[in-house]
Design goal:
The structure holds two protein chains of two kinds. By secondary structure, chain A is mainly alpha-helical. Chain A has three helices and no strands. Chain A is elongated. The longest helix of chain B is centred in the middle third of the chain and has 17 residues, at 178-194. In chain B, strand 4 (110-120) and strand 5 (126-133) form a beta hairpin. By secondary structure, chain B is an alpha+beta fold. In chain B, helix 6 (178-194) packs across helix 7 (201-208) and helix 7 crosses helix 8. Chain B is globular. The chains are: A mainly alpha, B alpha+beta. Chain A binds chain B through residues 16-17, 19-21, 23-25, 27-29, 33-34, 36-38, 40-41, 43-47, 51-58, and chain B through 177-179, 213-215, 221-227, 241-245, 248, 276, 279, 287-290, 312, 356-357, 369, 371-376, 379-380, 383-384, 387-388, 391, 432, 434, 439-440, 442, 450-454, 458, 460.
Chain lengths: 58, 462
């Protein structure tokens, strides 16, 4: 009985993982996300030039 | 004239203050040695340290003061090494397996070394040079520590010792301030990853300041961001620059905030992260400081603490987030700087330590920036979260050979086909785990300019 219960647990875990994997396959990156990524990337690369020229003195 | 021969000189660890002095760094290192279990040290007099010798030739040799070019090296052990045992190892090293067995034992007891320079700081305390100490242990209860480190060979009178570490040295303002020392620390892991060359402090300052600043080059008054970038460019590397704008960081506040995700991705890859810090005061102005984030502590991927090689504090100095609010996680630091005084006369301590920006020296072919990938990573999490409550995510940067070795040990559909497929040299990977088991990797080309579409490979693990 123990073997049957444990093997049915393995089967249910396997099908749970497969369900997750198939759900992940359906996620598509939309154009808006790529644009947002590029905008944020540009934003974090921008810095006040005066700050860039100030030395780290401590 | 210096002595031709060295003698066996050993000290209990609590008696090294006359050698290393009473500077803040020396006190920190004493405490750190105690934490990693050091009980004994061997003193190697008149040691020639290449790093100091270069600084000596570029700066100290032309000083009026009579400055020695030899250093003192201290080797630390977790047990007492008696003179009789040490000399027996040397005498009988070549007899059967004795040398091999004793060397293995000695290496297990070895905790690393530090070099004491023959130069004093402004408080007349000795400056501590190249220091390679064992990091905090990997395991800490149910949490794990990850450090940037690699194995270095050490010869102690011919005995080949090894230490797994990341080099540190205290600030020596004559030849370089905090940013120079941070660049110096970063050169070791960069050399390991990309084969770039190692330079001494004075060389780094000299190269960086070919981009001019208003302050003096030598004695060093500190480098600017442009000068840091100039140095990395000179050794054939690029830099990734991330300005930490609190309002932007707050946008992504939850279980995977920007700073811990970035630090984990780059440190796991083996890349040092330079933190540009603002030290706030009870005054309108602030001080600027730089340090290297060299490791982190986590529980199931959730980052609890950073470690930094900070030339004004010491190696592996601990950093906690000042606020547990995910919107501010690791923007403000609770660290040793909060105990330091900016105005000793009036007993005024720094009020806050804030990350102003992060600089990551990278190989030019690593073109797809962290932030480009991070936004996509967050998009996946948003979409995938509803699938199962036990899912966790990682954003990883990988080099192809190491990643293919990982794949080789896994079971997944089309294994042969995927392993035989051409891959780019560097990859960004969005990894999905269920109860800490890897179930899916979405693989992106990290050598492309920007992400234009879907992952180029998507692997479901059995």
């Amino acid at each position: 009985v123990a073997v049957m219960v444990s093997s049915s647990l393995v089967v249910s875990e396997k099908s749970r993982i497969e369900k997750i994997q198939s759900g992940l396959k359906n996620i598509k990156i939309d154009h808006a996300t790529i644009q947002e990524a590029q905008e944020i990337s540009r934003e974090v690369s921008k810095i006040d030039v005066n700050k860039l020229l100030k030395p780290f003195t401590i | 004239m210096i002595d031709k021969y060295n003698f066996f000189i050993g000290h209990p660890i609590n008696q090294i203050e006359p050698i290393i002095g009473k500077s803040e760094d020396a006190k920190y290192i004493q405490g750190y040695l105690h934490e990693i279990g050091a009980v004994f040290c061997l003193e190697e007099k008149n040691y020639i340290d290449k790093e100091f010798l270069i600084d000596y030739s570029m700066f100290y040799a032309r000083s009026f003061d009579d400055i020695n070019k030899y250093t003192t090296r201290l080797h630390f052990f977790k047990v007492e090494i008696t003179e009789a045992r040490f000399f027996k190892i040397i005498d009988d090293f070549n007899i059967g397996d004795y040398g091999k067995i004793e060397l293995e034992k000695l290496n297990d007891e070895y905790l690393g070394f530090l070099v004491v320079k023959p130069v004093l700081d402004s408080d007349e305390q000795p400056l501590l040079g190249r220091t390679l100490l064992k990091p905090y242990p990997h395991k800490d209860g149910d949490e794990l520590r990850e450090h940037l480190k690699q194995i270095y060979s050490v010869s102690l009178y011919g005995l080949p010792l090894k230490i797994d570490s990341l080099p540190f040295q205290m600030q020596d303002q004559s030849v370089g301030a905090c940013a120079t020392t941070s660049c110096w620390v970063s050169l070791y892991p960069l050399n390991n990853l990309f084969g770039t060359s190692i330079h001494a402090l004075a060389e780094i300052t000299e190269t960086s300041t070919t981009f001019p600043g208003l302050t003096r080059n030598f004695p060093s008054s500190g480098l600017s961001v442009f000068q840091i970038k100039n140095f990395y460019n000179s050794i054939g590397l690029e830099t990734e620059f991330v300005d930490i704008k609190p309002e932007l960081i707050a946008k992504f506040a939850d279980k995977y905030p920007v700073i811990p995700t970035l630090v984990k991705a780059y440190i796991d890859f083996g890349l040092p992260v330079l933190a540009c810090l603002e030290l706030h005061k009870n005054a309108p102005d602030l001080d600027q400081h730089a340090a290297v984030i060299s490791g982190y502590r986590h529980k199931n991927g959730e980052i609890k603490e950073f470690y930094a090689h900070d030339d004004r504090i010491g190696p592996y100095s601990r950093i906690l987030p000042a606020s547990s609010d995910p919107k501010k996680l690791f923007i403000d630091w609770e660290c040793e700087w909060r105990n330091r005084k900016y105005d000793t006369a009036n007993d005024k301590k720094y009020t806050n330590v804030r990350v102003e920006s992060l600089i990551i020296p990278i190989y030019p072919k690593l073109r797809l920036k962290f932030m480009d990938m991070y936004v996509i990573f967050r998009y996946y999490i948003q979409k995938a979260n509803s699938l199962d409550p036990n899912m966790s995510y990682q954003l990883l940067l990988k080099e192809i050979n190491g990643y293919k070795l990982f794949l080789l040990k896994k079971t997944f559909p089309d294994k042969k086909k995927i392993l035989m497929r051409r891959f780019p040299k560097y990859l960004w990977i969005i990894r999905v785990c269920v109860n800490n088991t890897v179930v899916n990797d979405k693989i992106f080309d990290a050598t492309c300019n920007y992400q234009t579409g879907e992952a180029f490979e998507d692997i479901d693990f059995k």
